[in-house]
């Protein structure tokens, strides 16, 4: 990308995003309608553990805000982006970005793993890199052993919820879920509690939703997220609400918790064992950047 677009790394200034898109269109034959969303993803820390690009301007947010028009943004390579290109050119050894990032961010089924755990597994010869870890944080549950064996597995991705006096606070949401959706759906569910939810038409195979019984343990939902506090969706609890039951109720609401299908291209032990260890300079450079 650097040779095609003239982008520099962290020590250089930003380049106009429109110029980058024009260069990609000339060399790859793909217009900005296709390449700009891909470029935006490469800047997003909530899409990738290790973004390849560093963006200046509005590139969207985890709240679901769209990025600004390309005319109003600029980009440059991140340190990881520079390292990836150096590895592609053969200037350093290979870098395990595929093992780290997976393909969830591209709509695929391969989950991401923690960069430090992948690096440790490759340098120390560990049999696996632990459970999948999402760039957004949150919880990952499911049959991880089945996943690491290379078999299709359904994973449950959950939000991180902190308990505070009189409230539950969501501080991390599942991958590919917006903070706004979490807040809106919780508020909607709290208002709807106690009322029968019945659709006039249901597609074949779908059962009617059961009535929600009893009052909701959550009386109000507020999104207090900011650049200083990070994600903070506050669920004020009803008087005398049981905290454990209230947390279970919150977690039952989509998309506070979601399910995703996942599968590795091969057993994790095989992926690690077949890694090219002839030149460890790429791993060394990666470790210095983590």
TrEMBL record:
Sequence similarity: Belongs to the type II topoisomerase GyrA/ParC subunit family.
Residue ranges of every copy of the Topo IIA-type catalytic domain listed in the record: 39-84
Entries under Pfam families matching the protein: DNA_topoisoIV
Alphabetical UniProt keywords: DNA-binding, Isomerase, Topoisomerase
Reaction(s) catalysed by this chain's protein: ATP-dependent breakage, passage and rejoining of double-stranded DNA
Protein name, entry field: DNA gyrase/topoisomerase IV subunit A-like protein
Gene Ontology cellular-component terms listed: cytoplasm; DNA topoisomerase type II (double strand cut, ATP-hydrolyzing) complex
Natural source organism: Oryzihumus leptocrescens
GO biological process, one term: DNA topological change
Top-level taxon of origin: Bacteria
InterPro entries in UniProt: Topo_IIA-like_dom_sf (IPR013760), Topo_IIA_A/C_ab (IPR013758), Topo_IIA_dom_A (IPR002205), Type_II_DNA_Topoisomerases (IPR050220)
GO molecular function (one): DNA binding
